């Protein structure tokens, strides 16, 4: 091979920072370069993601700011569009490299006016009249919202000791409950053992103490009667000024192999004080839409003897009935003969149906009340003197779920919100086949050839995966009217979320190469229509194919099976997508540029799923994610490209969500996993003896994931160790002879430095399609002094889709038949933008429209309906859609339009 000089490889890249100033180059720069005017921090328009809420429970959101415009400790003022000032609490959650403010988190309380629009701007904020007050004691934490007093224990089994208002205790004894089972009965004569576990607190930390928002973090495990600890949990409690509710984020880690430990049921339980007479006690359960079951513990309607219209109307409405001594004698003297219904159950065992039952007391038969489609996951038990509202978000989507009320006829009613219903079969996470004889690597490689499944014995374990659920609990001073109950149910279904506009985020220059939706030319309008088509098609597939369930909700399938008219749910690596080729990124960029609520909610659900269920949080694979498979944890390819923080940063900075912040911080040391797990073990010759100072951590999917975690930690003002590793890795990548094409690199885990003795250039089609493209674009702008890195990345972008002759001329060899050329057109567009190169800009356009390994322009962009008997349920199909191609088409379109807009 011919000799190679770095100067030759970088020819054409020296114009970085000195490109011809084409209009589209200037328009697409996300942040001001050195010497340019720094953009001013304009006021941020703030609006509700959906419509203005009727039940305001407070909201937290993130706002971005341009580099260099605001100090890190900037305070903010919030006002309605009409000019009325609104109390707001703000705090920094992200910084630019120069220390200026990049992201601020904001919160308003439950008493804030629910205006349609607000304006956030630098200035002194208005203090709330009613503040959240946090008092810490040795044995408990007391949080007072001004309406609700919540006592949180520091030890024991009870998390929330009491919830009270107006001096009256509403609920007490809030604890986590779990039912364990040692097996699954696969035959009629099977038998199993069961045990009860309850929460055991390890630590309590006040993460935020007001004045508008308080956050308390509780960690622990579930403990059995014999002392065994199982299922570590993290519970965060959120309380807002003026609120009468507690928002709970519940996370648990499945910390066993699943072969002999089965979750029979998992939930959160409270005891509710019942003060009123049985006929003034009420149970409310919200079903589909605004359907509402309104029951009394002792019913006074429909009796043979009529208590009177006033009595009946009051009971149905949830108001206090007239005094009993005013009842007709033929009712008053027989009240004790009317059954009291103390127990109620709403079980949503599938996404397509729920059933409500009730009984008088244990030991007696359950009576079916009614059934429905998709319950809201909200209920109330109490009376005219107060009670508890309780709800779980994504209730039917995360089936099997259940709401239980027990003992409502006694002094205390017991409420349990079941995340996994005890009426359902036990949770079964065992691997789905017996290995099919694939006991060695040659056989496993053969299996990959036929089902696309990368199988290996023992690797398909769920040990270490997690799930997070969101709940709300209201301490109410009386039974709410019907309209308010359904408004509360809507709040549980879709918590009110404040956001700013695409234009504001774009001006701030966050998240790299994108621009707001633009339909100003026929070509742009056509591409926007196709982007909408793809999103709406995949959104609708979720419901048409019922991609719901406790572990499944939030993910989508990988590839379609046109013969069976269903996605390949049962075929190896073609089933659950598990972030393959970055649908997460596609959805988040689609939201950023459109501001669409439905895109945000789908991206939110995916982030909750892929960050928890597709990633290991403990055990031997902690820090790694699992490649696509029939089960989310089934594939033996455990990789950082799936766990990458690149998919989480959006949600964290847009919402300030602490749990996603945890997930990002978990991954800052993910490079350590390469010491224990050989990612190329099935093709390696010889023994794997990893050297921590010379690890084979590649520059594509591996470094892309590590750099995203380090960048997020640096942005958040975390440990400088990770900033230094990021900068060192960038500098040394820039020093490699072949830049990002360098083969056989070695990584020093202590410093982040890369080195190589190789002079061979290679490329993988997967390197840049799991977040590397987006992260590198951001890093070049964030750290302009690393010119070697910028040149190396620019060289990769310019040459990946180049002709063989161009590749050979600069690299000494061509790169072979590279795949995903449409996906990589955005790299060509990046090079065109940075260099001001018209020919590259035109090449990027042609690569996009040609659609190699993607969607060519001349496809027929239509759906067709398939119904029975060809399909089980009516579904929409196309001739071309796959999730990989949709995600990469979406990213290619979004970024290419932003980088070379004048081509379209």
Automatic annotation (TrEMBL):
Domain PcRGLX/YetA-like C-terminal alpha/alpha toroid: 495-903
UniProt keywords, alphabetically: Signal
Annotated transmembrane regions: none
Record-linked InterPro entries: PcRGLX/YetA-like, PcRGLX/YetA_2nd, PcRGLX/YetA_3rd, PcRGLX_1st, TAT_signal
Signal sequence range: 1-32
Domain named PcRGLX/YetA-like N-terminal RIFT barrel: residues: 44-122
Domain called PcRGLX/YetA-like central beta-sandwich: residue spans: 132-489
Pfam families recorded: PcRGLX_1st, PcRGLX_2nd, PcRGLX_3rd
PANTHER family from the UniProt entry: CONCANAVALIN A-LIKE LECTIN/GLUCANASE, TAT PATHWAY SIGNAL SEQUENCE DOMAIN PROTEIN
Record's protein name: Tat pathway signal sequence domain protein
Organism whose genome encodes this protein: Actinoalloteichus caeruleus DSM 43889
């Amino acid at each position: 091979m011919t000799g190679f000089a770095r100067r030759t490889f970088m020819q054409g890249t020296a114009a970085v920072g000195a490109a011809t100033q084409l209009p589209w180059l200037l328009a697409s720069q996300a942040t001001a370069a050195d010497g340019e005017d720094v953009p001013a921090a304009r006021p941020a328009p703030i609006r509700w993601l959906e419509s203005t809420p009727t039940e305001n429970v407070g909201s937290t959101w993130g706002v971005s700011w341009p580099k260099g415009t605001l100090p890190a400790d900037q305070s903010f003022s919030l006002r309605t569009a009409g000019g009325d000032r609104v109390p707001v609490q703000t705090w920094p959650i992200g910084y630019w490299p120069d220390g200026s403010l990049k992201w601020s988190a904001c919160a308003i309380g439950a008493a804030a006016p629910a205006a349609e629009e607000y304006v956030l701007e630098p200035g002194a904020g208005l203090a709330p009249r009613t503040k959240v007050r946090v008092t810490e004691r040795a044995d408990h934490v007391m949080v007072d919202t001004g309406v609700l007093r919540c006592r949180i224990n520091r030890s024991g089994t009870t998390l929330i000791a009491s919830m009270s208002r107006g001096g009256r205790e509403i609920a007490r004894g809030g604890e986590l409950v779990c039912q364990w089972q040692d097996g699954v009965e696969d035959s009629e004569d099977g038998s199993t053992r069961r045990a009860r576990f309850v929460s055991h607190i390890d630590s309590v930390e006040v993460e935020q103490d007001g004045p508008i928002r308080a956050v308390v973090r509780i960690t622990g495990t579930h403990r059995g009667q014999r002392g065994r600890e199982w299922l570590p949990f993290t519970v965060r409690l959120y309380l807002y000024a003026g609120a009468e509710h507690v928002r709970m984020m519940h996370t648990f880690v499945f910390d066993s192999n699943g072969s002999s430990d089965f979750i029979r049921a998992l939930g959160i339980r409270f005891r509710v004080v019942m003060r009123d007479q049985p006929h003034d006690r009420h149970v409310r359960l919200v079903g589909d839409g605004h359907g509402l079951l309104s029951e009394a513990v002792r019913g006074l309607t429909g009796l043979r003897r009529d208590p009177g219209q006033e009595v009946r109307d009051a009971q149905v409405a949830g108001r206090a009935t007239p005094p009993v001594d005013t009842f007709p004698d033929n009712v008053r003297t027989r009240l004790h003969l009317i059954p009291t219904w103390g127990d109620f159950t709403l079980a949503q065992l599938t996404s397509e149906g729920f059933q409500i039952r009730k009984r008088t007391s244990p030991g007696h038969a359950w009576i079916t009340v009614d059934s429905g489609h998709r319950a809201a996951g909200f209920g109330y038990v109490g009376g005219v003197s107060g009670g508890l509202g309780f709800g779980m978000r994504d209730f039917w989507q995360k089936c099997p779920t259940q709401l239980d009320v027990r003992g409502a006829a006694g002094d205390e009613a017991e409420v349990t919100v079941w995340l996994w219903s005890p009426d359902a079969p036990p949770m079964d996470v065992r691997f789905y086949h017996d290995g099919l004889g694939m006991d060695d690597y040659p056989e496993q490689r053969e299996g990959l050839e036929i089902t696309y499944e990368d199988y290996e014995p023992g690797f398909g374990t769920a040990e270490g995966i997690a799930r997070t659920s969101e709940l709300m609990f209201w301490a109410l001073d009386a039974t709410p009217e019907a309209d308010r109950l359904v408004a509360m149910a809507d709040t549980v279904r879709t918590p009110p979320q404040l956001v700013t506009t695409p234009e504001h985020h774009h001006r701030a220059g966050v998240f790299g190469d994108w621009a707001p939706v633009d339909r100003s030319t026929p070509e742009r309008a056509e591409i926007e229509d196709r982007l909408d088509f793809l999103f709406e098609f995949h959104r609708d597939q979720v419901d048409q194919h019922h991609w719901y369930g406790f572990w499944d909700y939030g993910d989508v399938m990988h590839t379609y099976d046109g013969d069976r008219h269903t996605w390949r749910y049962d075929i190896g690596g073609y089933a659950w997508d598990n972030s393959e080729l970055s649908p997460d990124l596609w959805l988040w960029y689609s939201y950023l540029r459109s501001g669409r609520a439905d895109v945000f909610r789908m991206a939110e659900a995916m982030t909750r799923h892929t960050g928890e269920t597709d990633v290991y949080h403990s055990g031997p694979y902690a820090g790694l994610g699992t490649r696509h498979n029939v089960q989310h944890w089934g594939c033996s390819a455990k990789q950082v490209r799936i766990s990458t923080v690149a998919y989480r940063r959006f949600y964290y900075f847009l919402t300030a969500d602490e749990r996603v912040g945890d997930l990002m911080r978990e991954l800052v040391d993910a490079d350590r996993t390469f010491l224990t797990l050989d990612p190329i073990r099935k093709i390696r010759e010889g023994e794997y003896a990893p050297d921590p100072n010379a690890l084979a951590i590649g520059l594509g999917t591996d470094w892309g994931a590590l750099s995203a975690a380090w960048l997020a930690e640096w942005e958040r003002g975390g440990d400088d160790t990770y900033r230094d590793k990021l900068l060192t890795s960038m500098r040394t990548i820039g020093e490699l002879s072949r830049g990002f094409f360098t083969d056989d690199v070695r990584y020093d885990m202590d410093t982040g430095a890369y080195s190589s003795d190789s002079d061979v250039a290679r490329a993988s089609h997967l390197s840049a399609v799991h977040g590397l493209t987006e992260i590198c674009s951001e890093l070049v702008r964030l750290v302009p002094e690393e010119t070697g890195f910028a040149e190396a990345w620019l060289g990769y972008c310019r040459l990946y889709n180049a002709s063989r002759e161009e590749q050979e001329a600069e690299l000494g060899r061509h790169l072979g038949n590279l795949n995903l050329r449409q996906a990589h057109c955005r790299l060509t567009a990046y090079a065109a933008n940075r260099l001001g190169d018209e020919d590259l800009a035109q090449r990027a356009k042609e690569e996009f429209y040609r659609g190699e390994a993607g969607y060519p322009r001349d496809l027929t962009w239509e759906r067709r309906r398939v119904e029975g008997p060809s399909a089980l349920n009516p579904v929409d199909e196309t001739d071309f859609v796959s999730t990989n191609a949709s995600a990469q088409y979406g990213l290619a379109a979004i970024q290419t339009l932003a980088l070379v807009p004048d081509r379209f």
